[in-house]
Amino acid sequence: MARTLELFQQLANLMLQKEDQYAVAPYLPASELYDQLDLNLSEEPMADADYQESLSRLLEYTPKTATPGFFNQLFGGRNPDAVLGDLLAVMLNNSMYTYKAAGPQVGVEKVIINTLNRVIGWGQGGGTFGPGGSMTNLMGMIMARDSRNPSVPFDGIKNKMTVYTSAESHYSVPKNAAFCGIGREQVRYISCDEQGRIQPKALKDQIEKDINAGYLPVLVNLTAGTTVLGSFDPIEEVAQTCREYNIWLHVDGAYCGSVLLSKKYKHLIQGIEKADSFSLNAHKMLGTPLSCSLLLVRDQDMLYNSFSNDAAYLYQTDRDEFNLGKTSLQCGRRNDALKLWTLWKRVGTTGLEQLVNHQFDLADHARNYIENHPDYTLFSFPDSVSVCFNYKGIDAPTLCTALYEQSRLLVGYGSFDGDEFIRLVTVNGQNSIVDIDNFFNTIEDFVQDNQALFGLTDPLVNQDDF
Ligand SMILES: *Cc1c(COP(=O)(O)O)cnc(C)c1O
Q1: % residues pLDDT > 70 (the chain)
Q2: Does residue 447 form part of some domain?
Q3: Is residue 210 part of a domain?
Q4: Is the pLDDT of residue 82 over 80?
Q5: Mutate to test the pocket of ligand 1, among 172, 197, 222, 385 (most ligand atoms within 8 A of CB)
Q6: pTM to 2 decimal places
Q7: Upstream peptide bond of 134 is cis (omega within 30 degrees of 0)
Q8: CA of 304: how far to CAs of 129, 276, 382, 411, in Å?
Q9: pLDDT band (50, 70, 90) for residue 212
Q10: Average pLDDT for residues 132-142, to the nearest whole number?
Q11: Ligand 1 — pocket residues by CB below 6 A?
Q12: Rounded average pLDDT over 403-419
């Protein structure tokens, strides 16, 4: 093992060096993947030197998500304290289902969940970790289904159920409706206002329409940080409707649910204590390694109702309270809690709060930059860490793809209300204002150097033509 750790150290150092050299990684087209890299598996063992060479090349060509050139999805950076926790979790290799197998790691997980429950304002709340936000959203939907018809886990679905979500919500909602037996056709997409937030009145109208048509509405899914615009649905008002019609309220905070930890931005999820369940990805705004997805539930019993199952071979000591497998989607489950715990332990709640606030500061800076530079068009608004814009009217997919293929930046694009734009996400808490300026400068220089590619012609050249 000692030699392996030495090799790890060497490879990690190599990665850090490469990260200084390239914005993200040298571009490797998928069509050339198997020609460029030695990925095939062979019958015989590999010599040490070849093995190391093979790993080095693999690392070199893998996109580096921790660099200030990566803005592609809703994560980024590399927080050392969180990385330490995840490395230790790999070395320890516990499975979180029982106290017998995980010991004090169970306490690590429970302390995080209990602390977050207290911040929300739930007295006896519960929760668990799941393999990603899509899956913790699935757990919310399963509880919604089972709580509105407790016979479903035994008999299956007999009456048609409906779920409600905004047109701007994450694609896991229809996918999960398919998994749950509710069906994609029973997902109602509610229209949004001009900032991409669900319209409570339209929601209420749709619920009444469905009830009159004989459906059983089971779930309203709200989003705290929509995937494209980073908007926050109004929880308070919708919670009222959910109470009125006895519908489970889940808040998908996978992207920006971590505002919970910021006194300054917690108002964006005002009313969260009225939700039945809340999902949050610490691997997005809190910057832990992937994945670190929490599901928090107002009533712990609902988790047991939907996810516990007897298993004599597994649960042999201790009370249910310490055997976390009884509230889990999985059987064996990796320890995703430790990386958040090491981070939190090290920087304190104030450190997490600063981390969240800093990302909003970076977004404010980016919006200011755009507003002060006439070549840009802004499609975003305050209180969002997604900054959507276009540059010189260039088609966003063309520009993003060219930046990718020439290894300048990884950034994605999105659309809303008929506009298509580049989406800069300021979720790498390690970025500075200078990194954001560099992002824009990189785009500007790149466009300047590749005018023909974007159908822009230099007016001076045109004049020379005449
Ligand atoms: C990222 C995201 C998800 C999915 O989370 P994964 O961990 O990628 O499965 C769900 N909802 C929203 C709003 C997200 O931003």
Answers
A1: 98
A2: no
A3: yes
A4: yes
A5: 172
A6: 0.95
A7: no
A8: 14, 14, 40, 41
A9: very high
A10: 98
A11: 74, 132-134, 137, 170, 172, 223, 225, 227, 252, 254-255, 281, 291, 293
A12: 95
